[in-house]
Amino acid sequence: MRGAKAQKNKRMNIAKEIMEKAKKQVANISINKKDLWLMGIMLYWAEGAKEMDNGRSTGIRFSNSDPFMLLLFRKWLIDVCNVSLHDIKYEIYIHENSANNLGEVKKYWSNCLGEKIDRFPLVYFKKFKVKTNRKRIGREYFGLLNIRVIKNTHLNREIRGWIEGINNYRWRVV
Q1: Cα(148)–Cα(136) distance, rounded to whole angstroms?
Q2: Residue 173: CA atoms inside 13 Å, Cβ hemisphere, count?
Q3: What's the pLDDT tens digit per position in 58-88?
Q4: pLDDT tens digits, residue range 23-61?
Q5: Are 94 and 102 in contact (CB under 8 A)?
Q6: What pLDDT score was predicted for residue 91?
Q7: Burial 34-73 (b: 16+ CB within 10 A, else e)
Q8: Are 122 and 61 in contact (CB under 8 A)?
Q9: What's the CA gap between 159 and 83, in Å, rounded?
Q10: Is the pLDDT score of 171 beyond 70?
Q11: Contact 145, 91 (CB under 8 A)
Q12: C-alpha span between 80 and 164 (Å, rounded)
C-alpha cells in the first residue's frame, strides 16, 4: 500500500509540475480577435446546437459544465458576434434529485459567470439514475449550463457557414 501511495504521489507531483510549466507558457501568448473568432467557432462546433439541413430554425445554444469554457464562449458571443448581454439567457439542467440544492446551484453559476442569481430563472430537471458513474454528485454537482441567444437564428447559420468554410475552403482539415 505504501508503495502504491508513493507512486501515486510521484505521478501527481509530476503532473503538477507539467501543468505549472504549461500555464507559464500560455502567459506569453497573446490572443487577438482572429484567434478568439476561431476559438469560439471550435467551441460551438464541438458543443453547440446545429441546425439540420432541412430542419426547423435553431437559435444559438451552447451547453457545458465547465465555467471557463462558458465564460470564453460568452466572451466570443459579445466580442466577436456582437451579441448584447441582454440577449444572452441561461438555463440550468440538473438531475431531479438535486432539486433541494437548487439555491446553491444557482449561486454557483452566478459566481462563476459574474451574473446576478435572477439571470438563472430557467431550470430543467433530468431523470436521475440510481446507478451512475458520474464523479460529481451531491453537493459537488452543479449540473449543466446552457447559454442561449434569443432572436438569433441567422447567427447559427452564419456560424455553420464559418465551420464549413474552415473545412472546405480555408484549411481543408477534414
Answers
A1: 24
A2: 8
A3: 789 999 999 999 999 999 999 999 999 999 9
A4: 888 888 888 999 999 999 999 999 998 776 666 677 899
A5: yes
A6: 95
A7: eeeeebbbebbeebbeeeeeeeeeebbbbbbeeeeebebb
A8: no
A9: 13
A10: no
A11: yes
A12: 18
pLDDT at 157: 87
Task: Report the C-alpha gap between 25 and 18 in whole angstroms.
Answer: 11
Q: What whole-number distance in Å separates Cα of residue 155 and Cα of residue 57? A: 11
**Average pLDDT estimate for 89-109:** 90
**Separation CA 82–CA 76 (nearest Å):** 9
CB of 143 closer than 8 Å to CB of 105: yes
Question: What residue type is assigned to position 75 of the chain?
Answer: K
Q: What angle do CA 118, 74, 113 make, to 5 degrees?
A: 45
C-alpha cell of residue 94: 440538473
Residues sharing a CB contact under 8 Å with residue 64, sequence separation 6 or more, in sequence order: 47, 70, 73, 144, 145
Residue position matching grid coordinates 460551438: 44
Assess contact for 141 and 132: CB atoms under 8 A. no
